[in-house]
From TrEMBL:
<feature type="region of interest" description="Disordered">
    <location>
        <begin position="23"/>
        <end position="58"/>
    </location>
</feature>
<protein>
    <submittedName>
        <fullName>Uncharacterized protein</fullName>
    </submittedName>
</protein>
Length: 151
């Protein structure tokens, strides 16, 4: 015969006490008396005086929260889309295309420019935004090479 455990039990063990909580409309769903959160009993089917208005208020507040969350999600998607478009406009591949089209770029400047474009998105934006004749002098300045050193 198995002996029962003699461990002390908590005075409100959940396995011994089944509690039912009433909805806002006053029903517990089971037809039995409901034990409210404040510990008082309320008979099923007896609505509280402010139950209906409280339920409507919660639904309205819940709807407002859902609407706000949807607006936040939409704004986040728009921001992510704008960032992606910006990154596409100033991509490394576009910089390389313009670098290849620029006259007078020697190998040293070319490879230093690739490192610059890879590590600095702002440098890509500046390079692409510059007029054609300004790109090489700007790159030379960024790479620490003067036009006198290029032979």
């Amino acid at each position: 015969m198995a002996e029962k455990s003699k461990e002390p039990r908590a005075p409100f063990a959940l396995s011994k006490v089944a509690m039912t909580y009433a909805d806002e409309d006053g029903s517990s769903g089971s037809g039995d008396d409901a034990i409210m959160l404040d510990g008082h009993k309320r008979h099923a089917g007896v609505p509280s005086s402010s139950g209906a208005s409280r339920k409507r208020g919660r639904k309205a507040a819940g709807g407002a929260i859902v609407d706000a969350m949807l607006e936040i999600a939409a704004a986040s998607k728009m921001r992510a889309s704008a960032i992606m478009k910006s990154e596409d406009r100033f991509s490394v591949s576009k910089c390389i295309k313009l670098l290849d089209e620029t006259q007078g770029v020697d190998d040293r400047i070319y490879f230093l420019a690739l490192d610059l474009f890879e590590d600095h998105p702002n440098a890509r934006e500046v390079f692409i935004s510059l007029k054609d004749e300004k790109r090489l002098p700007w790159l030379q300045g960024k790479c620490g090479v003067s036009s006198a050193q290029i032979v």
